[in-house]
Amino acid sequence: MVYSLTYRRPSHVSSRQSLSGEERQQSINESIQSASSGMSHGIPESLSFDHIIAGGVCPPCTTRDFINYLKYIELSAENLQFFLWYRDYCRRFSKLDREKDLSKPWTPQHVDDETPARPKRLSPETAAAFKGTDFTSDSQIAEGERANPFFTPPRTSNDQTPSNLKGSRDSMDAYEESSAGGRTTNHTQRASDAFQSAGLKWKPLSIQPYRGEITRIISIYIADGGARQLNLSAKERTTLLHALQHTTHPSAFEDIIHTVEWTLRCQAHPNFIRWTICNGNRLRVVFARGLGVGGIVAGFVIVIVLTLSSASRAWRVLSLIAFFIGVSTLIAAWKGMCVVLHGMHHRHLRPWELFTSDDELASRNAKNHSYDSPDSQESSNSFEDEPWVAKYEKRNLIRKVFDREVWIQEPALRHIQDTIFLQSIIGALILSIVIAGIFCAFPQGNFF
C-alpha cells in the first residue's frame, strides 16, 4: 500500500472560497461517513480527523499536537481553536433549560425589519419611583438603547443574578483578564466596532443566554484586529454579525463553521498527518539525505574502480551494499524519515517540546482536554516571544542534529512509517541490483 498524503484540490476549485456552503457541507458529510479527511488518500481511519478531535489517538497525533502544528508550522491555529470552542458551546447550549427559548434558531430567512420605537416620556412621579433601578432613564444610556425594549442597562451593585444563569456568567469571567500582564480588554467596545464596520447596529439582547460569551467571541475571532481573528470574507462576517444581533443560538455560526471545518478536514488535517510522519527535525533530515547521497557516491566509486581494475566481475557486486544503503536512506529521508530513528521507533522532540521536562510532557500528553482552556482564549497565537525560541536558536548545529528523542506511542503512525521504510527497502534493492548489474556487464579494464 502506498501512502500518498498530499492535499488534492478538484480542478474546478481554486480556493476554499470557491466552494459554496452546500458543497462544503457535502464534502464534510462524505468525510465523516468515510472516516477520512476528505480530498486526501492513504490516511487510516484510526488517524482520521474525528478520531483526533475525539481524543482517541496517542502522541504525537493528539489534539494538542494538532494545535501546536497549526500554531507553529501553518500559523493558523485559530481555525481549530474556534472549532473546538464551537463544539463545546453547542454542548453547553443544549443542556440549557427554559433560558434556551430566549435564543431561537437562526435561519437565513430572518431579516431585520424592525424600526426602533420612539422613547416614551415618563412623568416625574414615575421617574422618581424607578430611579436607581434597571428601568431608570439615566441620561448616560444612549437614546437608541432606551428605545430598544429588550435593552438591559448595566446591573446595579445590589443586582441578584438568577441561579440558573450564574453558571453561564461565571464561566466567562476568566475571559476578562488578558493572559499578558493582567491587562483587560474592552470586548464590548471591540464588538461594537465590528458591528459598526459591517454597517450594523450594536443592539444585543442581554437577557439571552451566553450573550457575554458571544460578545467576547466576536471580539476575539470576528472583529478586525482580534487576538485570533478568523480568515473570513466580508460577506461571511456581515452575515454572522447580523445573525448574532438577534440570537446566541449555535445555528448563527452555521455558515462559517462549515468553512472552518472544511478547511480543517480537507487541508490542515492531511498536512498534519504528513508532517507527523517525519520523525526527525529539518537538520536531521538534511543530514540523512547527505548520508544517502554519500552512500550512492561511494557505490559508484567502488564499482568504477573495480571495473577499471583487473579484478573479476564478481567483486563488483560489493558495490551493491553501498548502493542499497545510500538509496534506501535517501528515499526514506525524502519522505522526512531517518532510518536510524525509525529502527527504534523514535522521533525528535519538537523545538517547543525540547525545553519541557519529561514529567510536564507526560502530564500534557495525558491531559488532552487541557489543550485550549477558556482561560487562554484571550491570548494571541503569536509565539515569537516564547522562551523556547531564543533557547533553540542558541543550540549549535551538531546538537540540533542529535536532539532529544522520544518513543512514538501511536500504533497507526508507526505502521505508516513501517510501510514507508519497507517501500524504501524494496526500491533501494531494485535500483541497486540494476546499477550493479549494468557495471557487471562491462569487461575488465585491466588498467591496474
TrEMBL record:
Top-level taxon in the UniProt lineage: Eukaryota
Region (Disordered), start-end ranges: 1-40, 101-192
Extent of Polar residues compositional bias: 12-39, 154-166, 181-192
UniProt keywords, alphabetically: Membrane, Transmembrane, Transmembrane helix
Transmembrane segments: 286-308, 320-344, 420-442
Keyword Membrane: yes
Keyword Transmembrane: yes
Gene3D superfamilies for the chain: Regulator of G-protein Signalling 4, domain 2 (1.10.167.10)
Family matches, as PANTHER family: RGS DOMAIN-CONTAINING PROTEIN (PTHR39466)
Protein name: RGS domain-containing protein
Lineage, broadest ranks: Eukaryota, Fungi, Dikarya, Ascomycota, Pezizomycotina
